[in-house]
């Protein structure tokens, strides 16, 4: 029942969004006729494309991904720009209305023309001029100007975002001090990557580029913190295969993200193990005086495979520092209760598309970079891929080299 309610709500929102876009971009900018009818048909088609893409790509219809997800990006920025324009547009309309009223008042106060002679017919009145500000074309031009500005702005931002999303991830370097870090682990380097999102828009070449980038870091340890795939092993096994070439001194480790659970988590746990990455599934291991732990993603709770912090940290030596791999930053609230020194996470994509990041902050305590949650240090990487629209604005794709130092 909950799923049905969500689907109905989502369809209603999509419908209202496209109704708004039709009103601002079609009805307000055209006169009744074939252009307005064509615009209405286009609005309906694009409205249908959005749910068709979201449902179809999950069902293996990947040909829908490019047109559907590109329209999602343009649609998002059209809404943002048009909403921002609502206030100046309202001011302009009020000004035009005031001009019309002023012009009408001038006409009403004009003196009656004098009669030529008694009993004679009144002179023919001169043709009335259109009062200033009463030209309906002004409102039409105003609406068209706003629509053109919104369209060009949305297309430009989306184009920039596509270039950013499809380009190589940037390398972020961060040094994080841990008070209990043993001298033997001083300067330990962790190559951190998250949200690779292999799927309909990202394939083997994306994985190869990330692997090459990580191998060039010459890291001590590699951490892949979830959302590696958006599809089954059958669909994406070949795309993920380059991960077997990952190199590091102390191994490569993997924890599940929410998208692994949408994609058949057990088959991917087995597959990454076959590729040489060690899955950390609510477990902890000791590496030269440091505890490395990993917990399952919150989404696993729906599959009886959720995070188990009590099991992960049962009986640990609290004199050793612990670094936790957990897909979502919000899991730091539980991590802090178990004395975790540092949590490494992804999931947020850094917001992926500004100003969407403002909404991400409502769900996650940290969107990007280093912060503290209940006394536990948390570093959140932007992720190396994207989900949905192949667009990143204000949050470039990222692979991070984390260096640990003692205080």
TrEMBL record:
Name of this protein: Membrane protein
GO biological process: lipid A biosynthetic process
GO molecular function terms listed in the Swiss-Prot or TrEMBL record: metal ion binding; UDP-2,3-diacylglucosamine hydrolase activity
Domain Calcineurin-like phosphoesterase, residue spans: 188-350
Keywords: Hydrolase, Membrane, Metal-binding, Transmembrane, Transmembrane helix
Reported cofactor(s): a divalent metal cation
InterPro entries linked: Calcineurin-like_PHP, Metallo-depent_PP-like, Metallophosphoesterase_sf
Residue numbers spanned by region Disordered: 115-135
GO CC term, one of those recorded: membrane
Compositionally skewed regions (Pro residues) per UniProt: 120-134
Recorded family membership: Belongs to the metallophosphoesterase superfamily.
Keyword S-adenosyl-L-methionine: no
Pfam assignment, any one: Metallophos
Transmembrane intervals: 6-26, 38-57, 69-91, 141-162
Keyword hit for Lipid metabolism: no
